[in-house]
């Protein structure tokens, strides 16, 4: 019978678990749990000292309750007590409880660490392993601080037992992953590498995980592991299946170790030493050969282990991408798997072939499997396998097979799972464009896409087809004819109407010769769809109509009548109404020449990388695209929109729309570029629009809390306000006073907010309200006289000292020279950021109060972060971008003590106030915060990424900034370190 | 490395949860909910692997219990099936003809055995005999309660 019968079974626990299992309802369960919790609590609080067994039993019950999903808020101390028990099972339960329920109680952490320390130095291998498992399970920074120095020593010491070495290696790996800065290599590097030679296979298996991780981070220091790994691999591969005794798994010698060795080698380029390389190639060939041998066992474990090694070897071959012979053999092997009866192998073969398809050596070999892959797409029962097949078809596509693949993907799309449709659509659109030999095929394909899966055709896709049609005059007639035919369908997707409206508006004349598609027929066809469409599409159609008037004067009266109808000219949607009114006027007043000029054919679009590609990369995540490329795509979207502005018929708006609509979601056809477009894009938020309009801000309520209490004037004179930091009135020179000592602190207050009280003394209160957009800012200063006596000759000057001058352009509007007692005046300051900066502009204020000159200087809270534009990005993009900014000077880091309570919501609010986008679900550790943004200066844009790692136990933060410009990282880091 | 290992029954009852990275309770609950739903709704004989977020999910059913784990992109799926199988073998060796009830009533043992086999999401010892020996040695240290 099993070891459970040995007598350590806890009867009370078993009874409790039975009770819980017998509960008929959630309520009954909760009741039973509460009863048990009360019982345990009273036992823990009772006067009678509990023996170790009872303590163990109760702690174990608490653990069970916690694992059921209930909160546990006591018992930690009892668990910690168990750690110092000398009975193994008690200690074990204590450690398990700590591992599962570790909390941030710093007092306990100290006790836990003490217990661990004792066990580590106990020289009892079983206790040492328990302690190491606990460190690895918790893996917190405190643990790293306490033990990162000790564990390497245990790992390489000559007298350490093998089982302890194994635990130590993986424990160290865990600490290295959480706190790489605390795990210092160096002196023990070479001894760790030599663990690859250890006699004990288990030690090698554990150590190699550590070595692989370290090699990824420090390839040079660990490169001696390559030859060791190759010789170890070679010994395993050439050993008979019985040589390795217990490390043989279902007749496969050491599959775990083999895979890990092959994985380690993927951290490095092919070995330079010819002999080593030869040996490795031999190994890889042997592995490929073994795949052809008959299986030694029918068990699935045997084939899994054997194929695990084979796939890992193929990964290495693909990684090297330099041995044509091996690549082709790998491809053939995968080809066999494509038809294997095991679904798992088909799935992995499809996945692996995707990477092979991008190698020049094996691309052709991969292509030979096209029929099998198409068949997989059609017949696989498992959606995840079909998805892999679609990925592979995409990867193997080239000019020679594009038509076949696109056709297959299109037909699959009709029945494809909803979850993958959008991605499929993007892929088809990209392939169609990339491999289009004749563009009529391209147009057909995209129109088919819209027909089959219109809902999944994103804006990028239909923008792109229009872009291409505009740019290529050989396809324009065909496109017009095809959309005309497609629009005949009684129910066609709105995206089809958009494409149709645009193309007929531009090129309808090319098919107007045919009486079946005469101008009026075209118009009536389009207009029959009008009422079923959304506002943006209707706006687009109105633009098409005015283009028709230019192209076909004979349609003028019909169209004018449509425009003149109440449903247009009095449409409740302002955009539609405006278009109707303007187009009507334009068509009736403008001469033919003017009409022809304004409504001329669209100019060609600049050739760029397809924005669809960028979108696909973004969707796919792993597939790699830099943020730069994405932004490229966005800019392109913006230009499309700007170009489309000409359709609006009002030339004066074009410049404005070009300059001010960088939004990627803006539409191709300039639907929002009617004359009402101001400099502010609609997305900028109404508040900003107000601020930047001439009306300015007159927020009455704003200074309500700044109103001076009238009684306060009594005490004023005695205090001699302002005198504290400037000389007595008579001695005050006309020079500006130096900034107040506290002005840096005041500045820090406004890093994460834009409004509030900047300064206050007994006389004066200065309120501030500011708004920023792109590289521009506007600040309102409110000077409140707290006394009952007027301030005279009130003057303010704003200056940019020293290096700040060329970076920041600050203009202050003059302010009223007289402030009555109890009154306030407002001053407007315009700010333009020309380049990145560190200092803050100075505000000097002088006035006479009761004859005495007051002179004070403050720093205006204009900091570089005010010019942030938030940037949303996915996890993958974030870390890719993070890695790109890896030069040491691009990073600034600070570790500092929390000066405020570490409240998540407060931290979030501050980070949002900073102006960057707070990215959720990006950092693998949910406690951490990451942000991204672009600082807009006139000279350049500086992309910045931020990571803030709070450590609640230590009440510390680690803040890391990475920017494309070193001064920016440094400055942001300085500013932010004061905020938390 | 393996990010987590979950054991749940056909009814979706969680029997064991092991997390190899730090996650908030909320995230853990979400992962558990999403994965039990996803895995339980898959047809029989479907592939044992599926992509999920940035992870590869590998799962396998043993009798009434599903063993399911999340892997990083460069982990080997087939080898992970072997890890799951070896874990089942270790449980079987310890309990003797292991069944779901053994894991319910001796959940702490299931955690201990896992700790002997996998640390921090990496395999530390693949030899069945070695793991058994560690457990044996440890058990011999305990005092038998009368």
UniProtKB/TrEMBL annotation, chain A:
Annotated keywords: Cell membrane, Coated pit, Endocytosis, Membrane, Protein transport, Transport
Binding site for a 1,2-diacyl-sn-glycero-3-phospho-(1D-myo-inositol-3,4,5-trisphosphate): 11-12, 43, 53, 57-61
Presence of the UniProt keyword Transport in the record: yes
One GO term (biological process): dorsal/ventral pattern formation
Domain Clathrin adaptor alpha/beta/gamma-adaptin appendage Ig-like subdomain: 748-861
Principal subcellular localisation of the protein: membrane
Membrane topology label: Peripheral membrane protein
A molecular function GO annotation: clathrin adaptor activity
One Gene Ontology CC term in the entry: AP-2 adaptor complex
Cell compartment(s), UniProt: Cell membrane; Membrane, Coated pit
PANTHER family registered for this protein in UniProt: ADAPTIN, ALPHA/GAMMA/EPSILON (PTHR22780)
Subunit-level organization: Adaptor protein complex 2 (AP-2) is a heterotetramer composed of two large adaptins (alpha-type subunit AP2A1 or AP2A2 and beta-type subunit AP2B1), a medium adaptin (mu-type subunit AP2M1) and a small adaptin (sigma-type subunit AP2S1).
Record's function text: Component of the adaptor protein complex 2 (AP-2). Adaptor protein complexes function in protein transport via transport vesicles in different membrane traffic pathways. Adaptor protein complexes are vesicle coat components and appear to be involved in cargo selection and vesicle formation. AP-2 is involved in clathrin-dependent endocytosis in which cargo proteins are incorporated into vesicles surrounded by clathrin (clathrin-coated vesicles, CCVs) which are destined for fusion with the early endosome.
Record family assignment: Belongs to the adaptor complexes large subunit family.
Protein name per Swiss-Prot or TrEMBL: AP-2 complex subunit alpha
Species lineage: Eukaryota, Metazoa, Chordata, Craniata, Vertebrata
Automatic annotation (TrEMBL), chain B:
Subcellular locations according to the entry: Cytoplasmic vesicle membrane; Golgi apparatus; Membrane, Clathrin-coated pit
Cellular component, GO annotation: AP-1 adaptor complex; clathrin-coated pit
Transport in keyword set: yes
Record bears the keyword ATP-binding: no
Topology class, membrane: Peripheral membrane protein
Similarity section: Belongs to the adaptor complexes small subunit family.
This protein's name: AP complex subunit sigma
GN (gene name): ap1s3a
């Amino acid at each position: 019978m099993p070891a459970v019968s040995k007598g350590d079974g806890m009867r009370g626990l078993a009874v409790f678990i039975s009770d819980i299992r017998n509960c008929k309802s959630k309520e009954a369960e909760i009741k039973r749990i509460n009863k048990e919790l009360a019982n345990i609590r009273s036992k823990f609080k009772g006067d009678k000292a509990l023996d170790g067994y009872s303590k163990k039993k109760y702690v174990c019950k608490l653990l069970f309750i916690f694992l059921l999903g209930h909160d546990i808020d006591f018992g930690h101390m009892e668990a910690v007590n168990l750690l110092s028990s000398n009975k193994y099972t008690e200690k074990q339960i204590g450690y398990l409880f700590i591992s599962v329920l570790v909390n941030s109680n710093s007092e306990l952490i100290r006790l836990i660490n003490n217990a661990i320390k004792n066990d580590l130095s106990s020289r009892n291998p079983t206790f040492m392993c328990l302690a190491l498992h606990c460190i690895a399970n918790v893996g917190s920074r405190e643990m790293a601080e306490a033990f990162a120095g000790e564990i390497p020593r245990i790992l390489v010491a000559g007298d350490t037992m093998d089982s302890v070495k194994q635990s130590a290696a993986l424990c160290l790996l865990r600490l290295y992953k959480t706190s790489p800065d605390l795990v210092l290599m160096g002196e023990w590097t070479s001894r760790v590498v030599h663990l690859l030679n250890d006699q004990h296979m288990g030690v090698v298996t554990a150590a190699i995980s550590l070595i692989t991780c370290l090699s990824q981070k420090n390839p040079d220091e660990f490169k001696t592991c390559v030859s060791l790994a190759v010789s170890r691999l070679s010994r395993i591969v050439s050993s008979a299946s019985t040589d390795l005794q217990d490390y043989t798994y279902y007749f496969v010698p050491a599959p775990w170790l083999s895979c890990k060795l092959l994985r380690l080698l993927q951290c490095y380029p092919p070995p330079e030493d010819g002999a080593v390389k030869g040996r490795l190639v031999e190994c890889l060939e042997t592995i490929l050969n073994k795949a052809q041998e008959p299986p030694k066992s029918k068990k699935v474990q045997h084939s899994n282990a054997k194929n695990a090694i084979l796939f890992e070897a193929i990964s290495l071959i693909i990684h090297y991408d330099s041995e044509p012979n091996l690549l082709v053999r790998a491809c053939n092997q995968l080809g066999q798997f494509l038809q294997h009866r095991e679904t798992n192998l088909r799935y992995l073969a499809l996945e692996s072939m995707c990477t092979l398809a991008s190698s020049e050596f094996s691309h052709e070999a991969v292509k030979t499997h096209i029929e099998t892959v198409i068949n997989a797409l059609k017949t696989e029962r498992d959606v995840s396998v079909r998805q892999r097949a679609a990925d592979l078809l995409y990867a193997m596509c080239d000019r020679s097979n594009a038509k076949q693949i696109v056709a297959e993907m299109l037909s699959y799309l009709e029945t494809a799972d909803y979850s993958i449709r959008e991605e499929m659509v993007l892929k088809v659109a990209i392939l169609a464009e990339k491999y289009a030999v004749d563009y009529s095929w391209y147009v057909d394909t995209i129109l088919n896409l819209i027909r089959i899966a219109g809902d999944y055709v994103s804006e990028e896709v239909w923008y792109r087809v229009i872009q291409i049609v505009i740019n290529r005059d050989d396809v324009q007639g065909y496109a017009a004819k095809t959309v005309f035919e497609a629009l005949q369908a009684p129910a066609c997707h709105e995206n089809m109407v958009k494409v149709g409206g645009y193309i007929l508006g531009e090129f309808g004349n090319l098919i107007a010769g045919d009486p079946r598609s005469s101008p009026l027929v075209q118009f009536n066809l389009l207009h029959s769809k009008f009422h079923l469409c959304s506002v943006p599409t209707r706006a687009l159609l109105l633009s098409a109509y005015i283009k028709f008037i230019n192209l076909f004067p004979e349609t003028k009266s019909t169209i004018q009548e449509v425009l003149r109808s109440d449903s247009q000219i009095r449409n409740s949607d302002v955009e539609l109404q405006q278009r109707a009114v303007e187009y009507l006027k334009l068509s009736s007043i403008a001469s033919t020449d003017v009409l022809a000029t304004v409504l001329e054919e669209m100019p060609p679009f600049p050739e760029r990388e397809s924005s669809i590609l960028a979108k696909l990369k973004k969707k796919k995540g792993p597939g790699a695209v830099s943020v730069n490329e994405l932004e490229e795509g966005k800019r392109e979207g913006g230009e499309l929109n700007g170009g489309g502005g000409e359709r609006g018929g009002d030339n004066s708006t074009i410049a404005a729309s070009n300059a001010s609509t960088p939004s990627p979601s803006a539409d191709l056809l300039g639907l929002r570029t009617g004359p009402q477009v101001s400099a502010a894009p609609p997305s900028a938020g109404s508040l900003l629009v107000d601020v930047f309009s001439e009306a300015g801000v007159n927020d009455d309520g704003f200074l309500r809390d700044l109103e001076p209490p009238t009684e306060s004037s009594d005490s004023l004179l005695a205090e001699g306000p302002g005198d504290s930091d400037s000389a007595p009135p008579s001695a005050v020179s006309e020079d500006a006073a130096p900034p107040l000592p506290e002005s840096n602190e005041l500045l820090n207050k406004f890093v994460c907010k834009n409004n509030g009280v900047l300064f206050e003394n007994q006389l004066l209160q200065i309120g501030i309200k500011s708004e920023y957009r792109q590289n521009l800012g506007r600040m309102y200063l409110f000077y409140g006289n707290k006394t009952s006596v007027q301030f005279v000759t009130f003057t303010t000057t704003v200056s940019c000292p020293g290096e700040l001058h060329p970076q920041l352009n600050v203009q202050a509007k003059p302010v009223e020279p007289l402030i009555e007692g109890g009154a306030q005046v407002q001053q407007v300051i315009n700010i333009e950021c020309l380049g990145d900066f560190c200092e803050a502009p100075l505000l000097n204020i002088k006035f006479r109060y009761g004859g005495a000159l007051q002179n004070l200087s403050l720093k205006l809270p204009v900091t570089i972060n005010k010019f942030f534009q938030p940037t949303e990005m996915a996890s993958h993009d974030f870390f890719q971008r993070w890695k790109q900014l890896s030069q040491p000077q691009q990073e600034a880091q600070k570790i500092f003590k929390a000066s405020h309570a570490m409240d998540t919501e407060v931290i979030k609010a501050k980070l949002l106030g900073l102006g960057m986008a707070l990215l959720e679900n990006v950092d693998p550790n949910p406690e951490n915060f990451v942000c991204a943004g672009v600082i807009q200066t006139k000279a350049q844009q500086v992309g910045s990424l931020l990571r803030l790692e709070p450590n609640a136990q230590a009440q510390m933060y680690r803040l890391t900034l990475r920017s494309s410009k070193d001064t920016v990282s440094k400055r942001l880091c300085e500013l932010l370190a004061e905020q938390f | 490395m393996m990010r987590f290992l979950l054991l749940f029954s056909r009814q979706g009852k969680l029997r064991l949860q092991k997390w190899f990275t730090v996650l908030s309770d909320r995230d853990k609950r979400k992962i558990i909910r999403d994965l039990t739903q996803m895995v339980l709704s898959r047809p029989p004989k479907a592939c044992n692997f599926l992509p999920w977020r940035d992870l590869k999910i590998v799962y396998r059913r043993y009798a009434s219990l599903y063993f399911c784990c999340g892997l990083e992109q460069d982990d080997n799926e087939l080898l992970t099936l072997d890890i799951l199988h070896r874990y089942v073998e270790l449980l079987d060796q310890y309990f003797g003809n292991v069944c779901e009830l053994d894991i319910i009533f001796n959940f702490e043992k299931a955690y201990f055995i896992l700790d002997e086999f996998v640390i921090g999401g990496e395999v530390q010892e693949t030899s069945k005999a070695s793991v058994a020996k560690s457990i044996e040695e440890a058990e011999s240290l305990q005092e038998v309660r009368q």
